[in-house]
Design a protein that fits this description.
two-stranded antiparallel ribbon, 73% helix, 11 helices, 320 residues, mainly alpha, two-stranded antiparallel sheet
Length: 320
């Protein structure tokens, strides 16, 4: 039952306080290690094989160190006093969630649009998406904000939740290490195509089941939120693989169907047009209120995942 308690309490803390803005946040520390490790291990004119091995060493090292560090630390804290270990593990779980941060950052875009300040909306959007935002219309800004909420639901909420329900904060933080590695070096550009290959593939594997659970819970959440759950299921079945990543379009397709929007498609990245397939059907133009709906759907999905996870842990506790 301890795991059910820590995951529930960690999620509640995230709902209340959101992302703690301090320098020693573990994700920032992981990012610093990746940056320094990348500078040390990735050399200019490396062979493809050497770059792959170097990136694999960095990835395996960070994931293993994170898991061992949190496991050992919590072991001694629980040995010292159960409540001390419980309290600290709750904080660690809280640090792994990103639901409120996702909502807060996307809602900054909404409030800027509400004030009819499209320049500010473009600026806030640029903080949470990779595409160029300078020339986006209000509709495209709204679509982009919806996309980022839908796409990041899995790796920001459901995936760490899944791993914490399995192995507590140590496994949840090991997942966050893998996800941070992918976000920093898992690119198919000249610099990281081989160095970050292991990180990208490992992240795909780690998110394979959580992304599909997220999509399933989101379809149920669409029904609860009185959105078009039938269309959500239809677009999910049709468009869930319309992305370079095997996981990213899982939740994005559900959200597109539930809201009756078309998402993704062609966009400019650093001045270069990148062609992507369209996800969903454009049954209506996107509006700023769709950002609020996407966040409502995100939270409903997260609570469903939490309730199901707690129920499964209780069954495990009683019968195993």
């Amino acid at each position: 039952m301890t795991i059910a308690i820590i995951v529930f309490a960690g999620f509640i803390l995230d709902c209340i306080f959101g992302d703690p803005q301090y320098l020693l946040h573990p994700i920032r520390i992981m990012g610093h290690i990746i940056s320094r490790g990348g500078k040390f291990l990735r050399k200019e004119n490396q062979s493809k094989y050497a770059a792959f091995i170097s990136g694999t060493v960095l990835s395996v090292f960070l994931i293993a160190v994170v898991y061992v560090f949190y496991s050992v630390l919590l072991y001694f804290l629980y040995k010292t006093h159960y409540l001390l270990g419980l309290a600290v593990e709750i904080v660690f779980c809280y640090q792994a969630f990103a639901a409120k941060a996702l909502k807060d950052e996307s809602m900054k875009v909404y409030y800027a649009l509400e004030e009819s300040d499209i320049s500010k909306a473009r600026l806030y959007l640029s903080y949470i998406v990779g595409r160029d935002t300078e020339n986006l219309s209000e509709e495209k800004i709204s679509k982009a904000a919806v996309e980022t909420v839908a796409e990041n639901l899995s790796d920001g909420v459901i995936a760490p939740m899944v791993y914490m329900f399995i192995g507590g904060a140590p496994l949840g933080m090991a997942y966050k290490a893998a996800n941070t590695l992918d976000s920093m070096i898992g690119y198919k550009n000249e610099k990281y195509v081989y160095f970050g290959k292991f990180a990208a593939r490992f992240d795909d594997i780690a998110n394979f089941i959580p992304s599909r659970l997220s999509a399933f819970f989101m379809i149920l959440a669409s029904f609860i939120c009185k959105l078009d759950y039938r269309q959500a299921g239809k677009i999910f079945l049709r468009d869930r693989y319309k992305h370079k990543s095997p996981n990213s379009a899982q939740t994005e397709s559900v959200c597109a169907g539930a809201l009756g929007l078309s998402l993704s498609g062609d966009n400019y990245y650093r001045g270069v047009l990148v062609k992507k397939p369209v996800i969903g059907d454009s049954l209506r133009p996107a509006i700023k209120d769709d950002i609020k709906l996407a966040n409502k759907l995100m939270y409903a999905t997260s609570w469903l995942g939490l309730v199901v996870g707690i129920a499964l842990r209780m069954v495990f506790y009683v019968y195993v």
